Amino acid sequence: MWTRIATIARWTTIEMLRERILYVVLLFAALLVASSSVLTPLAPGAQKKVVADFGLAAIDLLGILVILLSGSTLVRRDFDRRSLDVLLSKPLTRLEYLAGKFLGLVATLCVITIAMTGILALTLEAAGFGWRFTYLYAVFASLLGMLVVASIAVLFSTFTSPTLAALFTLALYVGGSLSGNMLRFLDASGGNPTLEWMSLAVPSLGLFNIRGEVVHGVSVHPERFAVAAAYAGIYALTALYVAALVFRRRDLR
Hints:
mainly alpha
């Protein structure tokens, strides 16, 4: 089983890294990080924080953009090429197929994130601000958040068009990023059952946003990383399981 999943993941990673769109996005993100030095006059005395925060945010947005552009087309691409029937005619279950596709997407995100982190480090060094090891904490947390969003994209790609899958994934990403503020608003206003259920329906992506703490030198407790990693793993496994259930019912003809 694991050999079949690894094979699908490897070919998915190779295919995604060969796509021109990923290199265009990578160049775009590199320009964002490099141009962040333009923002330094806006914050005298805090230039390093501005550049670091802008760069870390660019890394996170790049990953989400890759998921929206490529993750939402994972299943549809094979379906349009008529290669999905061939793959599933072999001793390969639909869960193994989806798991391989998901891991290939995650591997692609890791490669691009590592490249962007290197670009950010070079930008900080070239600007004379210096690189701090603690920035890697924010990068790792962003990767965990991407893991959750990627599993959502795979789920939607099993039963809807790439455009709708991207839109639904983006909606949950925005809602998940704002879920923390929504819960604080509910606590202050005495609570609203409808909004509480809505907040539970979206992923808690605010758990993975530690850029502010890292950039301003605030220590992050290891327990938060453990909780974030457990949450990301459980959410991704659940989304993949639901995706497999939906995919089994889909007529591929």
